[in-house]
Amino acid sequence: MENANPTQPLDMDYDDLWSNGSDTLVRWDGLSNTHVTSIPALTAATGQQSHGISAAPVFTAPSTADFTPSPSSPLIDRGIYIPGINDGFSGQAPDIGAVESQ
Questions:
Q1: Cα gap 58→84, rounded to integer Å
Q2: Cα-flanking dihedrals φ and ψ of residue 65, to 5°?
């Protein structure tokens, strides 16, 4: 992820920011070190993602565009309930991402 304009309002939390192979998780202009390498470092530097995770998402079948979290996915029940947006979730909390597992 990259935030090239930190003067604009931004509120991020309960997301999965994961990178496969890069030392930089987030590039954030305006910081003394613009290359942030972890969620705790991002939270400390910006206050963002205090409930975020950084884990391989483990989808059901991404090769066929099925981005439903698989039963072993770390995305399961890690989101936050937003009334009118993710009503009808299964489990103890919404899953992180666009598709809710069943």
A1: 27
A2: 65, 30
